[in-house]
Amino acid sequence: MNAVIDPIVISDHAGHENEGTGFWGIILIFFSFIVFLVTFPWSILTSVKIVREHQRAIIFRLGKMTKEGVRGPGIYFILPCIDEFFRIEGRTTKASIRSEVLTKDFLTVGIDAAFCFKIENPVAVVFQVNNLANTLQMLARSTLGRLLGEKNPLRGSNGMGATGTRERRAGR
């Protein structure tokens, strides 16, 4: 009663001979190596960020702010495609706008103005402002328009209009 058990052979190749990498495999490895050599210096250059003395950095990893929060000056290594890096200027910065404003008496006045700003809370800027430059320009224009809209540039200090006649207020 001796039964003979045939050994079961399990093969990866399902009847194919072991061909090795083959011609197209070598070509694929060669091009992968070339792509690696071409992109490696670029990825290293884009991964190293330098934050100067007057700047602050905020780094998000996978969409969440890192536990360090706002970071001071130094050199930081950023993981490409995983980290998002924001550099915030800490010095007082000036900007200028050119605007045309409609005054209270319906005159169009062209104004060149300059304004200064300093960021006190970098986290609030990153979380609450989408485009800082555009937001500041709009804020300055609206403030300038409101201030000049309240004033009448043709009225002198004595209340006389440009024509020399006294202006009357409605209701008097």
TrEMBL record:
> Gene3D superfamilies from the entry?
Band 7 domain
Q: Which residues cross the membrane?
A: 23-45
| Domain of life, per lineage | Eukaryota
- Identify the residues that the record assigns to the Band domain, covering every copy: 49-151
| One Pfam family per UniProt | Band_7
Note down the stretches annotated as region Disordered.
150-172
Which family, according to UniProt?
Answer: Belongs to the band 7/mec-2 family.
Q: What is this protein called?
A: Erythrocyte band 7 integral membrane protein-like isoform X2
